[in-house]
Amino acid sequence: MTKKVSFGAKPSAQPANPDQWVKDRAVQEKEPTKRLTIDIPESLHRAIKSQCAARGAKIADEVRELLLQKYGNQ
């Protein structure tokens, strides 16, 4: 038995050139950004995710705001 899978066209929301999209996004920022990866308990992640989803917010924006409140623009 052979399984056939067909793929449609690329979604139009996806940038044609991801590298250019990242560069363009960096230009929009006031300063260069750095990625931060942290490990948190699954229960905490679930709570953050559900509350953000209920408000239509992104987790990254929420965490960024909390970090700014704690550390500000020193």
Automatic annotation (TrEMBL):
Q: Which domain of life is it from?
A: Bacteria
Matching InterPro entries: Arc_rbn_hlx_hlx (IPR013321), Ribbon_hlx_hlx (IPR010985)
Protein's recorded name: Plasmid segregation centromere-binding protein ParG
Please give the residue ranges the record annotates as the region Disordered.
Answer: 1-30
Upper lineage is: Bacteria, Pseudomonadati, Pseudomonadota, Gammaproteobacteria, Aeromonadales
* Biased composition annotated in UniProt, kind: Basic and acidic residues: 21-30
Q: Where does the record place a coiled coil?
A: none
Q: Which organism is it from?
A: Zobellella iuensis
